[in-house]
Design goal:
The model has no long low-confidence stretch (mean pLDDT 85). Helix content is 72%, strand content 0%. By secondary structure, it is mainly alpha-helical.
Length: 213
């Protein structure tokens, strides 16, 4: 259900930035990457060069490389299911299909989940783009919608696992990334934090595996 308010927030943000409303449903249909779509609004307004857009997109979606390592692609039987499954792999559908009851979903159920999520995202953006044309320019804060969703997902994940280890690792990686960005290499916060966190989690996983024999 989060796709609806998120899509609305994206549509409103896009039209409020002076971009034609039809780009909201079009971009959500062919890109389908919430974080990048929110950032893309700023890219279009600022007129950034293609190479900078491509690099930023790679860094922001870098986590999907690791999603792919445990996403149950083998459950998707047909070639078209697999292609769409990779295209429609989002944080939310990944979280559902790789934990809890979602681990029992069949390939058909996973595809339905992804299609429904995609449709809701597009419809939410379309609705938001229409609403955005009548909302006063003084209304601010829609760009924070995606961050709010990620915070909610993180809190729920911690409550479910009842472990703060990953939170401490994430916080520590963020602090190191911030320091590197501020004092050593500018604009490096995201990539440094991500790589450091992945390395820490991989090391922890290796130690746990060795302890189990």
């Amino acid at each position: 259900m989060a796709y609806i308010p998120l899509g609305i927030a994206f549509g409103v943000l896009l039209t409020a930035s002076g971009i034609n409303w039809y780009w909201a449903p079009l971009s959500t249909l062919v890109i389908y990457a919430g974080s990048i779509e929110f950032l893309a609004v700023g890219f279009m307004v600022a007129g950034l060069p293609a190479y900078q857009v491509a690099f930023t997109s790679f860094i922001v979606n870098f986590r999907h490389i690791f999603y792919g390592l445990s996403f149950p692609l083998h459950r998707l039987r047909t070639k078209s299911q697999k292609i769409y499954g990779v295209f429609a792999l989002t944080d939310e559908t990944y979280g559902i299909t790789t934990a809890g009851p979602g681990t029992d979903l069949t390939g058909r159920q996973i595809t339905i989940l992804q299609v429904v999520s995609h449709v809701w995202w597009v419809l939410g953006a379309l609705l938001g783009s229409l609403i955005g044309q009548v909302i006063p320019d003084s209304v601010k804060g829609f760009e924070f919608a995606l961050t709010a969703m990620f915070l909610t997902l993180a809190v729920n994940a911690v409550k479910a696992s009842r472990s703060m280890v990953l939170v401490y690792l994430a916080a520590g990686s963020g602090v190191v990334g911030f320091l590197v960005d501020k004092y050593l290499v500018g604009e490096s916060f995201l990539i440094v934090s991500l790589l450091l966190y992945v390395a820490a989690v991989s090391f922890m996983y290796k130690k746990e595996k060795e302890a189990k024999g």
